[in-house]
From TrEMBL:
PANTHER family: PROTEIN BIG1. GO terms for biological process: (1->6)-beta-D-glucan biosynthetic process; cell wall organization; fungal-type cell wall biogenesis. Residues 1-17 form the signal peptide. It comes from the Eukaryota. It is found in: Endoplasmic reticulum membrane. This is Protein BIG1. It is a single-pass type I membrane protein. The chain crosses the membrane at residues 246-269. The lineage of its organism: Eukaryota, Fungi, Dikarya, Basidiomycota, Agaricomycotina. GO terms for cellular component: endoplasmic reticulum membrane. Belongs to the BIG1 family. Keywords: Cell wall biogenesis/degradation, Endoplasmic reticulum, Membrane, Signal, Transmembrane, Transmembrane helix.
Length: 291
C-alpha cells in the first residue's frame, strides 16, 4: 500500500509540474543557423516567449522565403506524442536538416503570436498573412517573402475526444504545410501552443500559484459538531472489512494454496505398500502346537 501511494504521489507531482507548459516544435527545409544555434534543452526558468524571440531575431531568419508560425491554443506535449509517426509533422521533423523540439516550456501569459509575426515581418520586409487553415481566400505570391501566421482551433476537449480532434487538426495542418512547401521551397516552420484565454472573472491573478492550495480558512461548517452516528445496517455497511488486499489473499488461499495441499494429501494417502510374509510354505500351526 505504501509503494502504491508513492507511485501515485510521483505521478501527481509530474502532472502538476507540466500543467502550465506548452511545446515548441521548429524545423526548416534548408539548414538554418537560427535553429542550429539553439541548445538541445533549456533550463526550467526559460519560457516559450524567449525561445520564439531567439529564433525570430536570429541573423539568418530573413533568408527564408517563408516563415510559418502555427499557433494552437491549449496545445500540450502529450497531444504531439499521441500522433502517428506517419503524419506530416513527424516526417518533417525527421527529414529536416535543422530541427528543434522543446516539449515542456513554461507558458508565458503575455505571449502574443501576432505581435511576433508583425515584428519579424517588418524586420524582413515580408508580406504578412494571417489566416485559419482551410481558408480559401488566401493568395500566396511566389517569389516574394512571406510571414504566415496560422491560427489553429484551440484544444479544450479531454480524453478520446481530444485525441480525435488533434488528429483532424494535424491532417488539416499537413495539407496547408504541403502547399506552402511547394510554393516556398526554403521555409521555416514554428509550431507552438499558447495559453487558453479565460473570461476576466475567472482569470488568475499574477501571483496566484498554478498548483492547487488547501483551503485552511475556518468556516461555520468546520466549527459545527461532527456527526458521529454510525450508519444503519450490517457490519459491512459500518466498517470496511473487504479491502482489495484481503480479497486477493482470500482468493489466493482458497483457489491456490488449499487445492495444492489437498492434492498433496491425496497423493500421499494413495501410496500402498505390499504385505510381506516370511513364513514358509510348509508351516503347520497344528504341528507347532503339539511340539
Amino acid at each position: 500500500m505504501a509503494a502504491r501511494f508513492l507511485v501515485v504521489a510521483a505521478v501527481a507531482n509530474a502532472v502538476l509540474a507540466y500543467s502550465n507548459t506548452s511545446p515548441i516544435v521548429a524545423w526548416s527545409s534548408l539548414s538554418s543557423f537560427a535553429l542550429d544555434s539553439l541548445p538541445s534543452r533549456f533550463d526550467s526558468d526559460v519560457h516559450s516567449a524567449s525561445i520564439l524571440e531567439s529564433i525570430l531575431n536570429a541573423d539568418d531568419v530573413c533568408n527564408h522565403e517563408a516563415i510559418v508560425i502555427v499557433d494552437q491554443p491549449g496545445l500540450h506535449a502529450s497531444d504531439l506524442r499521441s500522433l502517428s509517426p506517419n503524419t506530416h509533422l513527424a516526417r518533417s521533423l525527421s527529414l529536416s536538416p535543422s530541427a528543434r523540439q522543446y516539449p515542456y516550456l513554461p507558458a508565458h501569459p503575455s505571449l502574443d503570436i501576432t505581435s511576433l509575426a508583425e515584428s519579424v515581418s517588418s524586420k524582413c520586409r515580408s508580406q504578412l498573412l494571417q489566416y485559419v487553415p482551410g481558408q480559401s481566400d488566401v493568395t500566396l505570391k511566389h517569389g516574394s517573402k512571406h510571414v504566415i501566421c496560422m491560427n489553429m482551433p484551440h484544444l479544450a476537449e479531454s480524453g478520446k475526444e481530444r485525441k480525435n480532434a488533434m488528429v483532424k487538426h494535424e491532417t488539416l495542418l499537413g495539407i496547408e504545410l504541403s502547399t506552402l512547401a511547394s510554393t516556398f521551397p526554403d521555409h521555416l516552420v514554428i509550431y507552438t501552443g499558447s495559453p487558453l484565454h479565460s473570461s476576466p472573472s475567472k482569470r488568475q491573478a499574477p501571483n496566484t500559484p498554478d498548483r492547487p492550495v488547501l483551503d485552511l480558512s475556518i468556516s461555520a461548517d468546520t466549527l459545527a459538531p461532527a456527526n458521529t452516528t454510525l450508519p444503519t445496517g450490517g457490519i459491512l455497511k459500518k466498517y470496511q472489512l473487504l479491502t482489495p488486499g484481503l480479497i486477493t489473499s482470500l482468493l489466493v488461499t482458497f483457489f491456490i494454496l488449499i487445492p495444492v495441499v489437498l492434492m498433496g494429501m491425496n497423493a500421499l494417502a494413495s501410496i500402498q505398500t505390499p504385505i510381506r510374509s516370511d513364513m514358509g510354505k510348509t508351516f503347520n500351526a497344528q504341528e507347532r502346537k503339539n511340539q
